[in-house]
Amino acid sequence: MLNAVLSIAMLSAFLLLYGAWKRWSRDGASQQIWLMIAAALVIFANVAIWVVPDKQGKSLVTEAQ
């Protein structure tokens, strides 16, 4: 179940970046574009926290399972 949640989070982050790029090419820079990029970066950081192992080779995903 956790793998599905992380996959959906990654898909949503990529969709946010795609939407920001499409809006940028259509309207130019606006505050909403920067907020979409910031939200995508926060999602990427959260997934990295869960997935990247520490010095002992343990990650939160492996510990949760």
Shape: elongated
- Name the structural class: mainly alpha
How many beta-strand runs? Answer: 0
- Beta content comes to under 5%
Helix content: over 70%
Average pLDDT score: 93
Give the low-pLDDT segments.
none
SS summary, helix count: 3
Rg estimate, integer Å: 15 Å
In short:
With 65 residues, the chain is mainly α. The protein has three helices and no strands.
Please give a handful of descriptors for the protein shown.
80% helix, 65 residues, single chain, mainly alpha, 3 helices, elongated
Task: Walk me through the structure.
- The termini are close together.
- The chain is 80% helix and 0% strand.
- The protein has helices spanning 2-27, 31-51, 60-64.
- With 65 residues, the chain is mainly α.
- The model has no long low-confidence stretch (mean pLDDT 93).
Please outline the helices and strands.
Blueprint lengths: L1 H26 L3 H21 L8 H5 L1
Helix pairs in contact: 1-2
